[in-house]
Amino acid sequence: MTPSFSSYLVNEPFGDPGLYVEIKWARRALLFDLGHNDALGPTRLLRAGEIFVSHTHMDHFIGFDKILRIALGRGKTLRLFGPPGLIANVTGKLRGYTWNLVDGYPLTIEVREFHPHEIRSATFLASESFEPREAPPRSRHALSPFPVLEDPMFTVRAIALNHRIPSFGYVLQEQCHINVNKEKLRAAGLPVGSWLKDLKQLIWQGQPDDFRFTATLYFEHRREEREFQLGEVRDRFVTITRGQKIAYVVDARYDEENEAKIVDLARGADVFYCEAPYLERDADKARERYHLTARQAGLMAAKADVRQLVVFHFSPRYTGQGEMIVQEAMQAFEGRQ
Ligand SMILES: [Zn+2]
Ligand SMILES: [Zn+2]
């Protein structure tokens, strides 16, 4: 079975934090945090239309300029999500440049910041020299973790963690995983092709079994329009299983409240990306700087019963000792200490 998401860190673990998630067949990607992101290259950066920012300390936001530069001049909408203050930060970044020659540029930037009780949003258009247009605030979901982006295929939720400022932890959850059995299709004389994407979309949308749709099928030498009934096609060719879950946590202090929120966020995740800037022997410093230790990351991953733990955002003080950090986290995760 092919998973829908393929995820990886933007940089090596001593580099700026960031997570890139490709959505397979959709030519679409999600980006968590905006630190240095040169390593991704223009094609992948352009694909990341939705960006989730944990907080705007420099190592999590300096890459905004890079993505802005690449997206400028393309017919594109960039959507950013994050904690209070994000709109002011984006406004500040955009005011750092002169925009007298971009009238015809089709770039739009939408920013949404999530406050404890409301969502504020602003839109910036290149054609208006990126002067912010603020929309009236909307009330926010009281749920925890609260939804930040709801797509037919997946949901991204967040929690606000204590980093002396709110730092958002995120979880990406695929609604359900839809797998088309290509062997069975072939046996039934049906071709693969973009009609399968449409089919998946209909299933995600929750259309009823008797829903009828017309698919364009491309055979080797001909093209054919054919009508199908959703329930019938699904039962014959599709397997639906539990969706993937990916959690991302950076920059948070280890205390009871943060721990409860993180464990809840990451519960049962297939992959849990968790910061581990410090070794346990420097737990005091970690606490002072509102960060986690590798052991704390491992303990929380074990409590949350995740399948895989990936630690990153290592402090430069341990340069050359990355293995030790990984080892400490894994030992705690596997319950060996
Ligand atoms: Zn920070
Ligand atoms: Zn950081």
Any overview of this molecule?
- This protein is α/β, with parallel strands linked by helices.
- Among the domains are: 1-141, no CATH class; 177-241.
- The protein contains ten helices and 18 strands.
- The strands form four sheets. Strands 1-2-3-4-5-6-7-8 form an eight-stranded mixed sheet.
- Helix 7 (256-266) links the parallel strand 16 and strand 17.
- It starts with a strand and ends with a helix.
- The chain binds zinc ion (2 copies).
- One zinc ion binds next to loops.
Strand segment count: 18
Low-confidence stretches: none
Order of helices and strands: EEEHEHEHEEEEEEEHHEEHEEHEHHEH
In round numbers, the mean pLDDT is 94
Distance between the termini: 35 Å
The percent range for helix content is 25-40%
Helix run count = 10
Shape: globular
Largest sheet: 8 strands, mixed
Radius of gyration: 22 Å
Widest sheet: strand order? 1-2-3-4-5-6-7-8
Strand-pairing-aware structural class = alpha/beta
What hetero molecules are in the model? zinc ion
What is the strand content? 25-35%
Would you spell out the secondary-structure blueprint of this structure?
Blueprint: E1 5-9, E2 19-23, E3 28-32, H1 41-47, E4 48-52, H2 64-71, E5 77-82, H3 86-95, E6 108-114, E7 118-125, E8 133-139, E9 146-150, E10 154-162, E11 166-174, E12 177-180, H4 182-187, H5 195-204, E13 212-218, E14 223-229, H6 230-237, E15 238-241, E16 245-249, H7 256-266, E17 271-275, H8 283-288, H9 294-303, E18 308-312, H10 322-333
Parallel strand pairs: 3-4, 4-5, 5-6, 16-17, 17-18
Antiparallel strand pairs: 1-2, 2-3, 6-7, 7-8, 9-10, 10-11, 11-16, 12-15, 13-14
Bound molecules: zinc ion (2 copies).
